[in-house]
Amino acid sequence: MNRAQETSLALMIVMPLCALIPGSVAVLLVYTQGTRLIPLFMFTLTIVLGSLFWLLPAVVQKIHKSKKVQSDERDVLIYKNGAVAAHIVLWLYFAVACLAAWWLVGPEGTVSVNVMPLVLIGAVAVFLLVEYLAAFIQYGRGGDDDE
Amino acid sequence: MNRTQKGAWFTLGISSLLILFLAFVLRSMFVPGDRLAGVGLARGWSWLVLLFTVVSLFFVFRKQSPAAPTADERDHVIKRNAVLASFISVWTLLAVEAVLSSTLLDDRGSIPVAAVPIINTAILFTAMLVYAATVLVQYGRGAKNEQ
Predict the structure, then answer these.
(1) Inter-chain residue contact A101 with B112, CB threshold 8 Å
(2) Contact B124 A91 (CB under 8 A)
(3) Which helix (H) or strand (E) holds B110?
(4) Which DSSP category does A112 fall into?
(5) How confident is the model at residue A130 (pLDDT cuts 50, 70, 90)?
(6) Alpha carbon distances (Å) from B27 to A2, A108, B20, B97
(7) Domain boundaries, chain B
(8) pTM value?
(9) B99: which strand partners?
């Protein structure tokens, strides 16, 4: 396993937890204490960072164009491919979530509005998991180039 | 107008029609007694969508000149940027959906389970709309620079 693969594997475990824990706590705080600034800020931050983190290598590359190389063209391409794969899985996740809700409460049933942000937090976690899993697989395909 | 532009106009048209259709279906779910009243209009709207699809697909796949390339490097860059914009719009819309439902229906509110897939499908069509609009805006910019 090369260094890039190890990083992807670590991020695959850490990043979904980073989305799930503060996101769920924020939703729980809103549910128990009502809408306040801090839980809303936590929720927004989780969604924005979790869902748009894949843009970071491309942005860093653009900023540091003439300076030291932070990530090469291959890294950016790998993360972009990972993001595409993760977005495809994201739609499958939402389809499954809709079907599961339908199956659990029946066609005439209702779901609490608090379920919506929780589903979204779950979506961020699934997205990050698939993104870094795709990066892990793609770095593995490149062989031991990085070693 | 090349195939990418024609495809973008097609996507713009079909996604606008489908968003309007879903908005109508969603509205009929929340207005008491409206569910059956809307069936005729929904059927008519489905025929309109089908007609638009068939006619516009003919124009999209009809080549103006056999020598003209299907897509060049610039088309690929434009498509890539458009995909990026639609991905960002998906996350923004999902976050708005979660926050808006909590704000409009209060913390203890609930929504019909049948509305959830319609909302998510509407988000998918809006992402398609953003993709098409981004493609057309970029081609518009390119045309301005060429003049």
Answers:
(1) no
(2) yes
(3) strand B110-112
(4) E
(5) very high
(6) 54, 16, 10, 16
(7) 3-146
(8) 0.75
(9) none
